[in-house]
C-alpha cells in the first residue's frame, strides 16, 4: 500500500460555452506517470451518487484533458478528482474540485465579417455558438456586442461602442486602415465574453450626397408629442417619405433593410417636418427613423438614421397651476404636463413637483422658498395677512434626470388680519351684555313707579253718574265703579224739615265714607251695593 507518487495539485476546470477542459499541476519528478480523473454530479433524487471515470481524462500524459462529451447537465453541481498512476502504482486522490458548469462558463468570441463601403465599415456579427448543436447560451438574441476600433497607427486612440449584429461604423477618415475586435456580453448574467481576433480593413472615400438629400435630421419631443425635422438644400421640387424601424428588429441576425415602414401621414410630403407620434405605441421601445428624399427624376436618397428612445428623447413640459386661499392656508392644485397624455407622463416618469413661492412686494430681498411634493395637491401655511403671494411649479423626474421649465406665475392675495374685527366684536358684545344687565332692573323699577303714579293720579275707572251729581270732591274716588247703574227718577218736595234732615244724613254719610276711604279696602261690587242701600234709605227717610 506504500507509494511514492504524489497527488496532482491546483485542480482547475475551464469552461468556454460547452467546452470543458481540466488542468492541474504535478510536482513529482517521476517518469512515465499518467493521470486519470473521476467525476460525479449531485442528483437530488439519488443519495450517494457513485464516482465514475471521466471520459477523455483517463491515462493522459499531459497536464490537461478535454471532457466536454461527459457533461450534459449544465445547471447541476459536479465534483471532479484526479490521481497520478504508474503501472500498478497510484497516488492518493487529489482534493475534490466542485463546480456548476453554467456559473463558471465563459462566452466565446463571436464571428465577424467586415465590408468597407462609401466611407463606412459594414460589420456583420454571428453569435458565439453559431451552428452548434449543444449550447450553453440558449437565447442568441440576449447577446449584446461591444466593439473596440482604432486607427492602425503608432498613436492610435481606442474607441468603444455598442453595435448590432448588422451595423455600420461611421465617422471614419477616408483611405485609412482601421483595426477592430468584438466582444459578446450577456447582460442577464453580467457575463463578458472573449474578444474576437483582431480584424483590419481600409476605408474608402464617401460619395458626395446629392443636394436634394435630407440633412441635419433631428427629433423634437415634448410631452410625448414627437416631431422629426430636417433641412432641404435643394431649390427644385423634392418630396419626402419618413420611414421608421422598430428597434428590436436590429437585434436579429437577419437583414432588416427590407423591414422599414412609412410613417402614416408623412408620405410624399414637401414639408421638412413630420409628426410621428402615432407610431410611438410603447414608451419603453426603441425606434429608428430616416428620411427618404425623392427628386423630380424619382431618384431616391436616404438620410442618416436617428434613434428614438421615447422616455429618454422626450422632454417634460411645465405643469399647470391653480391657486386658492383660505383663512390660514394657500392651496396649490397642480395639473401634470401633457394634457391628455398626463397619465403616461406621470406613470412612466414618476413625477415630483418643485414649488417656489414668495411674497410679491417691492422689497427685492424677499426670500423665495421652495417645497418639493409628490402629490398634485399642496398647501402652504404661515401666511402673512393682506399679502400678495406668487407661486410657480416645476415638474421633475429623478429616475430619468429630467426637469421641466417652471410654470407661469400664479399670484393671490391673502385675507386681511381678522384679530381687530374680533376684538371690536367682542367689545361690542360685552358692552351690550353690560347695558342689558343694568337697564333691565332700572327699566323694571321705572315701569313699577309709572304704574303707581298712573294708578293714583290717572285712574282708569270713573264714579257712577248717579253719585257724581252729589259733588265731585266728595265722591272723586279712584275705586268707585264707573259702571252706570239704572236709577229711578224721583221728585223731591222741598221743606225745611226735609232739607235739614237731608243735610244731617249727608254729614253722617260723608263721615262714614271718609272712614271707609281711610281703610283702603274697596271693591266695585261693595261700593255699588252700598250706594244702592244709601239711596234707598234716603228715599225712605225723605218720603
Automatic annotation (TrEMBL):
Keywords: Membrane, Transmembrane, Transmembrane helix. Residues 508-543 are annotated as: Disordered. GO terms for cellular component: plasma membrane. One of its GO terms (molecular function) is type I interferon receptor activity. It comes from the Eukaryota. InterPro entries: FN3_dom, FN3_sf, Ig-like_fold, Interferon/interleukin_rcp_dom, Type-II_Cytokine-TF_Rcpt. Pfam families: Interfer-bind, Tissue_fac. The chain crosses the membrane at residues 419-447. This is INAR1 protein. The lineage of its organism: Eukaryota, Metazoa, Chordata, Craniata, Vertebrata.
